[in-house]
């Protein structure tokens, strides 16, 4: 009887141990699977589309019979990255008209050497990137099929393919994921000016009159510039571009780097705290206020009424700060 009871207890314990081991292994598998998925997501979201490995030259001619309305370049890697095209979309109509009407003006396409475009387009884009929204249209290799060699002519997309669109942040030098869409089955899936305008109308609202683009630029201001104690001197910088606004403050035992949000009104540009970058959140300062105030322009000077700076550096005393803007 005792022996039979011991056997029963042993079997119960064995079953429990087996069950626990199975659950533990299952947990490890889930962690492993999640880790793999996270790593894949991390890899996908950290692609640098400007990496020299992917660049083979700028283009304007899509094929022998089709001309793009803006400069772009593309990369195809069937077994590694996949396919992407980087598009330089003009912010202003006059720049768009240049590429659509003037660039190939009086050109004989029967004799034109399109290889020259790789260098020629670069001369127009160089040092003028602030005039463009830079998008990447990305399709992962899992959606690619090939009829032979890995070339634009031989590769096509599978049914129900997905594409990811990224927008380049000039301030932070990084690509931000902005949208996922159903991809066309044709390769290359060319996206023109109207495609980006339709998908991101907020970026092109300046055609209707009002635009944050009037405020694009880099601004600076020095607090306590003439102080005899260098520890009281603080350097404040503000950078406003097409898709981000950043604020930084540096000085003795001070480093803040924030992303701000904006809203236009009749008096200027209203700024508010959005998020801290590089783990620089100053809880004491932000607890007082997250209002970064109003920037205005009187025709000669850029002026900034900023409650955050007042509360952080002047004990709440209200000031009008004159900003220096880089040319």
TrEMBL record:
State the source organism's domain of life.
Answer: Bacteria
| PROSITE patterns given in the database record | PROKAR_LIPOPROTEIN (PS51257)
Full protein name: Lipoprotein
The opening ranks of the lineage are: Bacteria, Pseudomonadati, Bacteroidota, Flavobacteriia, Flavobacteriales
